[in-house]
Amino acid sequence: MGMFYFVVNLPPFMEALVDVFLLALLSTPFIYIFVLRPIEMVFIRQKKLEEFMLHTKRHEIDEQLKKFSNALIQTNDAVSITDREGIIEYVNPAFESLTKYSKNELIGKNRQS
User: Fold this and answer.
1) Fewest beta carbons less than 10 Å away: which of 1, 9, 25, 56?
2) Cα–Cα dist 48/54, whole Å
3) Domain range for 40
4) Percent of the chain beyond pLDDT 70?
5) What is the largest CA-CA distance in the chain?
6) In whole angstroms, how far apart are CA 71 and each of 22, 46, 48, 65?
7) Is residue 64 included in any domain, yes or no?
8) Domain end among 58, 74, 90
9) In a domain, 23, yes or no
């Protein structure tokens, strides 16, 4: 089967439009592969790095929270935590043994009463 070629005489501005269209059509893969995709990969890597750092920071905070929680439970000093109105939210075991009240009796009560 033979190939057909069309020879068309176009005005110069139409030739320029066809050239621009063909250039855009043919250079689109090049632009995506060598320009847009690397930029996209930078943003993807940045996002993954931020997620990793956030996860790492969250893990560090959880570890510190565990340490402080264990220290609060194991200390021989009586510790109670209240809200701004003076309602008891937490007491450690040393507070219970010192006051002879159980945690259930103290939590929810006002510290002043």
Assistant:
1) 1
2) 10
3) 31-74
4) 92
5) 104
6) 72, 37, 35, 10
7) yes
8) 74
9) no
Dump pLDDT digits (tens) for 40-93.
888 889 999 999 999 999 999 999 999 999 999 999 999 999 999 999 999 999
When pLDDT is averaged across residues 21-49 and rounded to a whole number, the result is 81
CA angle (23, 24, 30) in 5-degree steps: 95
Residues 80 and 101 in one domain: yes
pLDDT of residue 7: 60
Strands, DSSP E only, in 1-113?
80-82, 88-91
Whether 97 shows a pLDDT value over 90: the answer reads yes
How many other CB atoms sit within 10 Å of the CB of residue 102?
Answer: 10
**Does 95 fall in a domain?**
yes
Question: Both 58 and 84 in a single domain?
Answer: no
Measure the CA–CA gap between 79 and 91, rounded to whole angstroms. Answer: 6
